Amino acid sequence: MDLELLETTLAELGEPAYRARQVWRWAAQGADGFDAMTDLPLSLREALHGSLPFSTLTVRHEARAADGTVKALFLTRDGRPVEAVLMRYRDGRRSLCLSSQSGCPLTCTFCATGSMRFGRNLTASEIIDQALHFRRLGPVDHAVFMGMGEPLMNLDAVLRACSRLPSIGIAPRRTAVSTVGWIPGIGRLAREPAPLRLALSLHAADESLRSQIMPVNDRYPLAEVLAACREHFERKRRMVFVEYVMLAGVNDSVGQARQLARVLDPRMFKVNLIPYNPTGSAYEGSSPKAIEAFRAELERLGITATVRLTRGRDIAAACGQLAARG
Ligand code: SAH
């Protein structure tokens, strides 16, 4: 829902300011239209219905994976594609993977989003509408900005959206913002009072290899990115999660695990190894054996390391696969 338009529409209708809060409360609790908002006068519900689209996004396509993951492809009013994912875990956790941009201007070589055309930054309302869509399917409790786009290039809208997530059921501590290492954004996030989690897509400890697979490293080299993450840790006192996609023969040797351990302070960083999800790129995913050897070497060197559970690969909803192909 366009929350600014909601306020101006209510003002034009001569309604008191608390009406906006009433409407928001219903939406945040999963209402699927103005009609459901039974403590609003019927005439107001009808007026809103007639003058304000309930969502800034329309659902173009929805897919369900065998593991319960749901992926939605939305279109913005101006026709930009946006994807978001609901992940359901056996322990009951319901986690949203949200997009901050339509497409992505960065061109990480292993990521499908990076190979589609960049559209634009999403508005806060367009981010919130992704969350509201899944909230209508049931309660949700975690969110990660790991969908399309680079959230730290659109931080104003991301932070505005984050400020609304708690009323949907997602506390700031359960919200993670993932970045390629966009340094100005990391600095700003560190100074934010909200205890949001920071995740860094690292993928190679060696500067030249990292530049090769993530061109953004030429602009913001890893050493400087890690210094910014350190500052984030010192201000927030929360571990930074390092994401590391495992590419066979590229970044997955035991020697490269040692190199990674050398650049990470185990008090500040935890590593999450991501099995590569096919995107039509030239890469192949590392074997489970290689992933386990890499993980074991990190652990031996004192770095906590886990392997990310792959979700929704059969509907192209897994990490790196969002490219609005429906
Ligand atoms: N731009 C931000 C947010 C996207 S997060 C960032 O890069 O952090 C998406 C995560 O999935 C990132 O860690 C990204 O590197 C990872 N990823 C991209 N392509 C992937 C692929 N094909 N397989 C597995 N993970 C991938």
Percentage of residues in strands: 15-25%
CATH topology of the largest domain: TIM Barrel
Tell me the series of helices and strands, N- to C-terminal.
Answer: HHHEEEEEHEHEHEHEHHHEHEHE
> So what's the CATH class of the largest domain?
Alpha Beta
Q: Give the helix/strand class.
A: alpha/beta
Silhouette: elongated
Average pLDDT taken over every residue:
95
- SS summary, helix count: 12
Terminal residue distance: 23 Å
Would you report the number of β strands?
A: 12
Q: Report strand order across the widest sheet.
A: 1-2-3-4-7-8-9-10-11-12
Rg from C-alpha positions?
Answer: 21 Å
Structure commentary:
The protein starts with a helix and ends in a 19-residue tail after the last strand. The protein has 12 helices and 12 strands. A 10-stranded mixed sheet has the order 1-2-3-4-7-8-9-10-11-12. It is α/β, with parallel strands linked by helices and 326 residues long. A hairpin with a 5-residue loop joins strand 1 and strand 2. It folds into 2 domains: 54 residues, Orthogonal Bundle (DNA polymerase, domain 1), CATH 1.10.150; 260 residues, TIM Barrel (Alpha-Beta Barrel), CATH 3.20.20.70. The protein is 37% helix and 19% strand. It binds S-adenosyl-L-homocysteine (SAH). S-adenosyl-L-homocysteine (SAH) binds next to strand 8 and strand 10.
